[in-house]
Structure formats: structure tokens, C-alpha cells
Amino acid sequence: MTAMGRSLGLGTAVVLALGLTACTVGGEPASTDPVVQLGAPGEPNRTLTPEEAREIGVPEHVDADVTFMLDMIDHHSQALVMTGYVKENTDDRDIRLLAERMEVSQEDEIDQMAQWLQDRAQPLRENGHDGHGGGHGMPGMLTEEQLAELEAAKGDAFDLLFLEYMIQHHQGALQMVQDLYQAGGGQEPGVGQFAAHVEGDQGIEIARMQEMLAERTS
């Protein structure tokens, strides 16, 4: 089911807040963030006034949302460990460009998730995972042994291993999004929009990496 389909499942009048800071800790939309009501089939969307948004009620975050954001920070942190090996281990231009794009996007997303938690008075983990296998119980996470194997590989061997392991890692992120929805999370606008972004962005990157892997193994 698409992110839009999940939203429409909430009812004909669905409210989406634009931006990760769309809700305050209390769940009410911030006055500077527009809230859009999706129209019924064939009807246009409409931007609500703050008063209308309060009357409709914007879903508040639940425990599953907080756990998802905390876990995804740890998950992203390991991806940054993996991309950190690229500069020293390969001269492949496409692999380097891919890693650079991932670093920019995942660092930015970590900042967004940390801000989401801060805005909702949710503390970050004091002893969070550093990306070196500590959170391998999460879907797609590499073990210490796999990370060591990746770090030690060079040239073509590194390129293949990097793509294989990053595809595994990204697929794990998609599973985390599905687990969020199954746990009843993702309805609060901020986390819902972020989860949909992760689902779309990493899905695109998986397809690209699969193409790159096929090119290098054919």
C-alpha cells in the first residue's frame, strides 16, 4: 500500500502537516506550519486555518513513533560508518558519488529526527549505537564481522561488498517503516511524512544499487 493509500484509510478528510515540526509537543499544529486537508476524489485539497485544524484534531505521536525515530537514528549512523570506508577503499567514481549523496541525505535526516524528538520532549539515547554493529538486532544492520569485512576490502571486491551490504541495510530501513505502521505508528503528521520519505528515497536507492551491482557482476 502506498503512503497516500494509508493516509486515505484514515477517512475522507485526511489532515497532513507539511514539515517535521508540524506539531507541538501537545499535538496541535504550529501556527507557522500549513495543514492541508485532502479533498474527496475529484475535489481539490484545502489549506485549513489554525482554528479548523484544531477542531479536526491532528493525531499525536505514540510510543511506536518515538522508538522508530530513535532506532532509525542508530540505523542511519551505521550507514554513515559504511560510507566512511569508501574514500580510502575504492576509486570507483559511481560508488563515490553514491556514498557522497547518502552521507548528505542521512546526516540531514539524523538532524531532522533529533529535532523531531526534541520538539516532542523525547530524549535521545545517551548511549546510542555508534554504527559498529551494536544495533544489529534491527532489520538490515550489519554485524561487527560484516563491518570488518567491508572495511578490509579494497577495489572491486569492496565495490561489490559495499553494494550488497548497503542494499541489505536499506531493505532493513524499509522493513522498519512497515513495522512502524504495523505497530500503529506513523499517523502523527511529522513522523508519517518522514517515514514515507524514507520509504520512497531508500526504495529508489535500492533499485539504483541493484543496477550497479548487476553491471559489476555481469
From TrEMBL:
- UniProt KW keywords: Signal
Q: Name the source's superkingdom.
A: Bacteria
InterPro entries tied to this protein: DUF305_CopM-like, Ferritin-like
Instruction: Return the Gene3D superfamilies for the record.
Output: 1.20.1260.10
| Keyword Signal set for record | yes
UniProt-recorded name of the protein: DUF305 domain-containing protein
Q: Which organism is it from?
A: Agromyces mariniharenae
**Sequence ranges assigned to domain DUF305 in this UniProt record:** 65-213
| Segment forming the signal sequence | 1-27
